[in-house]
Write a structure and sequence with these properties.
By secondary structure, the protein is of the alpha/beta class. Helices cover about 45% and strands about 15% of the residues. The protein has one domain (about 1-265): Aldolase class I (TIM Barrel, Alpha-Beta Barrel). It contains 9 helices and 8 strands. The chain has an 8-stranded parallel beta barrel, surrounded by 8 helices.
């Protein structure tokens, strides 16, 4: 399943509309770093309302939750899954906090994803992601981490990065296969924008069950805005802005539908 970040009603309708056209289940992400741009309670209410009107399965997921307070806030808002990111913490502290988050969320029947290793780049908006092979997920450590935290899904670092890639991505598939065997739970690939289609398909055969994708959507939105502003008489139309937002929605929806096709989730709703 694809997990697509939602920062506005245009992105919300683009993703859900694509899921309905593709007959695909979908995960809607709201990342903690994006709370600087959108109010969690407001956007969560909009997402839940849109999901209630839809006939495809929709998950509302907190993406890269960094603090206990944010997780509790998301639970109260009605999120159906939580991704807690303690990858920046020392190993034992990552275990302790991930275990506590899992205990809290499981009591409310909410699934939990955590991260082990460090995915390249950051969620903070840097365009080009950097990758450090020394921070890749260790398969043996993954087994210990899953057993001690009781999480439901594990985000892995195997050469993937947030933002755009410098050159062609080089995913460590042998490491991914070893992690799959040791972890024994669904695996998650962050930094999906820019990974070749065949690499997605191979990663899925090796245990990847959720793929996060946002940069490609954001770039499509920016390209649409640039084209609309520079190639039309927007200053002469009072309704130019909403018309442009509809163009953004359509373009982003096309990108999302394309990724659903690559991931193989179409027709499974």
């Amino acid at each position: 399943m694809g997990a697509f970040n939602v920062l506005s009603t245009e992105f919300l309708e683009a993703v859900v509309g694509a899921a309905e056209r593709m007959r695909s289940p979908v995960i809607l992400n709201l990342a903690e770093v994006h709370l600087a741009y959108v109010d969690m309670e407001v956007i969560a209410a909009a997402i839940i309302r849109r999901a209630q009107k839809s006939d495809v399965p929709i998950v509302l997921n907190l993406d890269h939750g960094l603090t206990f307070d944010t997780v509790v806030r998301a639970v109260r808002c009605g999120f159906t899954s939580i991704m807690f990111d303690g990858s920046h913490l020392p190993y034992e502290e990552n275990i302790a906090q991930s275990r506590e988050i899992a205990r809290l969320c499981h009591a409310a029947d909410i699934s939990v994803e955590a991260e082990l290793g460090a995915v390249g780049g950051s969620e903070g908006g840097e365009l080009m992601g950097t990758i450090d092979a020394s921070m890749y997920t260790d398969p043996a450590q993954a087994e210990d981490f899953v057993k001690r935290t009781q999480i439901d899904a594990l985000a892995v670092a195997i050469g993937n990065a947030h933002g755009k890639y410098r050159g062609a991505p080089a995913l460590d598939f042998a490491r991914l296969d070893a992690i799959r065997e040791k972890a024994g739970i669904p695996l998650v690939l962050h930094g999906g924008s820019g990974i070749p289609d065949d690499d997605f398909r191979k990663a899925i055969t090796l245990g990847i069950a959720k793929i996060n994708f946002f940069t490609g959507m954001a770039q499509a939105a920016i390209d649409t805005l640039k084209h609309a502003v520079t190639n039309s008489d927007v200053e002469l139309k009072y309704n130019a802005f909403p018309d442009i937002m509809l163009q953004v929605q359509e373009r982003v929806g096309g990108v999302v539908a394309g990724q659903m096709s690559i991931f193989g989730s179409g027709g499974k709703a």
